[in-house]
Fold each of these.
Amino acid sequence: MSDARPVTVDRPEPGVAVLTIDRPAALNALNAAVLDALEAAVAALAADADLRCVIVTGAGEKAFVAGADIGLMAGMDPRAALAFAETGHRVLDAIEALPVPTIAAVGGYCLGGGCELALACDLVYAAENARFGQPEVKLGLIPGFGGTQRLSRRVGPMRAAEMVLSGRMLKADEARAVGLCLDVTPKGAVLDHALAVARTIAAMAPVAVRAAKQVMARGIEAPLATAHAYERAAFANLFATADAAEGMAAFVEKRAAAFENR
Ligand code: CAA
């Protein structure tokens, strides 16, 4: 596919959207056009009440995303670089803030801004050919789309420091061992695996899934007692929803629940 449409959005099944970074000739590197397209796609998805889960992936088997576009960055001064980092942060924050679960389906290189994109997703699955890394120090740079912060929170500060300070790439099995991804699939099978997980999530009560995501995301940034208060409030609020009534009634009546997202 050409750069003219660098992000595609597919709806392979009800409630599930697949966002594909589609710039394989540059290993799906994030340039301004990709970031703009991603931002527009995410804004549209954020407003979609029928959405249940979003999968983010990269076109081709060679890369999820090999990072921010280095050719583009090579011409930047500090001012332009700050604007670029602000755009990257804004787009990845928007992905992180999507009200429904997000899944990164990673095959091939997942480097720099690509690793940062995966870190903005709730769940990460990887094909066996996946390679994760923050190689910015090789370029005289540091991660600029949240990697110095989200990576520590996901894998712990010391492992994150090793990755960011050395630029070392992790193979899929090692990435799983450190908590950078969950299951590792055969090459080419990661999108199907992500779709299966998305299908499972999409079958759950939508109001509950959204509430759980929101409470976990807000709570991790808060002191534990505050986070527990978020949980109690959200738990209680669900008792005012039709879907909680339906879910519990269905269990008691030994039948499948029919959720209505309300
Ligand atoms: N930006 C721009 N173009 C890139 C790119 C990137 N990040 N990564 C790969 N490409 C391009 C290559 O320039 C090449 O294009 P041409 O065919 O026109 O020459 C094409 O994609 C294929 O790449 P290679 O020929 O290099 O493929 P390879 O198999 O030999 O190597 C690789 C693969 C090891 C991933 C290598 O491409 C590489 O090291 N890429 C850069 C990875 C990197 O440093 N990422 C971090 C970027 S900085 C960043 O992301 C900052 C931030 O936090 C915001």
Amino acid sequence: MSVEKTLSIIKPDATKRNITGLINAKFENAGLKIIAQKRLQLTRSIAEKFYEIHKDRPFYNDLVNFMISGPVVVQVLEGNNAVKLNRNIMGATNPEDAEEGTIRKEFAESIEANSVHGSDSFENAKTEISFFFAKIELIV
Ligand code: ADP
Ligand code: MG
């Protein structure tokens, strides 16, 4: 097992309901360490750039509008197999398909307002972490 970092975003549906602490407890209870964290209001251009990979998907515009509808908390999680472990803690994209005990099963409002983002590969985690965090913010 190797120690990895992954990027997580607590989405506007969750910051609005004041449940960032409940979500962070899920990460910590599963053994992930929150090594960097900040609350931001994304601009349209930042959200469009972050989700550029989805720009041809039918839900892209709605997703960008949702991600700028309120503050988000961007964070770096660290632990053994952090990328995969975080995806397991998050649960399936659609909360109807998510397993019991996962963040999306317990907290997501819909397939769009699904409370959290998590990097889906080691390579994407590196890119996404450097999108939001400077090196100096990641010294633990
Ligand atoms: P995940 O966040 O699980 O990696 P994707 O990368 O496929 O999922 O999608 C990015 C985000 O776009 C999802 O988390 C969700 O907020 C939104 N999304 C995905 N599929 C749909 C859909 N069919 N309708 C509306 N929003 C969607
Ligand atoms: Mg994804």
